[in-house]
């Protein structure tokens, strides 16, 4: 007897369509993510992965379809809307500023301040303390959070971006090609970060071209081609070899 769902999914995107002029970029795509679930979205360039994510984070509007968040219909029209819900994205360029410190990158655009008299100043100490706590939780081996990000390895930079998502208590973290151009060590580190997010009951959408990396951490695989979802498979229903064969014919 199948186990009944006791709670609505964290995220449900239903019948999502997007046109760019005459180009039908997304054709009725459905996506569902549960808390603590890693869903890998796989497909070649032009499959619609990036368009789907841009809609989810509020960068571009959908033309048709519905988004539900924790069972309630959600209107996502801006990045602020998605962040208020608890959605954070980490992009393949790592979205960090090399000349700023680790702590300043974590709080980039949302800096902590303190009031002294009629003025407000950056609360550097508090940002440093909270960044240290975050990096320790992630097992991020950084000598000091005062160091500039340019001195961090590729894996550590991704860790900084993921720390930012954790600080803002993201319920869903989107990772867009997070291991592109990373060393083997950096790749392993990022995959470990994903496992930690899952253990913290944070939902993860992983956009990846690398089947091996996706298979090592994902619970479910969505295959996209030419704006359509062509497969939605739980991990226990497919081997990595079969998944690779499916991707070849997309």
From TrEMBL:
It comes from the Bacteria. GO terms for molecular function: ATP binding; ATP hydrolysis activity. The keyword Cell cycle does not apply. PANTHER family: CARBOHYDRATE TRANSPORT ATP-BINDING PROTEIN MG119-RELATED, SUGAR ABC TRANSPORTER ATP-BINDING PROTEIN. Keywords: ATP-binding, Nucleotide-binding. This is ATP-binding cassette domain-containing protein. Residues 11-250 form the ABC transporter domain.
């Amino acid at each position: 007897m199948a186990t009944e769902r006791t709670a609505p999914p964290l995220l449900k995107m239903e019948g999502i369509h997007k046109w760019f002029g005459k180009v039908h970029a997304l054709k009725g795509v459905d996506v569902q993510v549960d808390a603590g679930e890693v869903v890998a979205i796989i497909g070649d360039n032009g499959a619609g992965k990036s368009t789907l994510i841009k809609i989810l984070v509020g960068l571009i509007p959908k033309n048709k379809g519905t988004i539900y968040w924790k069972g309630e219909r959600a209107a996502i029209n801006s990045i602020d809307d998605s962040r208020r819900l608890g959605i954070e994205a980490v992009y393949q360029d790592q979205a960090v500023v090399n000349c700023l410190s680790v702590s300043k990158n974590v709080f980039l655009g949302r800096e902590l301040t303190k009031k002294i008299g009629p003025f407000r100043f950056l609360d550097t100490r508090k940002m440093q303390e909270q960044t240290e706590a975050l990096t320790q939780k992630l097992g991020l081996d950084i000598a000091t959070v005062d160091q500039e990000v340019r001195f961090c390895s590729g894996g550590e930079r991704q860790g900084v971006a993921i720390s930012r998502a954790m600080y803002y208590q993201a319920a869903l973290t989107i990772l867009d090609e997070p291991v592109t151009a990373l060393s083997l060590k950096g790749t392993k580190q990022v995959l470990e970060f994903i496992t930690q997010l899952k253990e913290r009951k944070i939902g993860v959408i992983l956009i990846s071209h690398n089947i091996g990396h996706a298979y090592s951490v994902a619970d479910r695989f969505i295959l996209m081609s030419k704006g359509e979802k062509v497969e939605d498979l739980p991990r226990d229903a497919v081997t990595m070899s079969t998944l690779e064969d499916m991707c070849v014919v997309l």
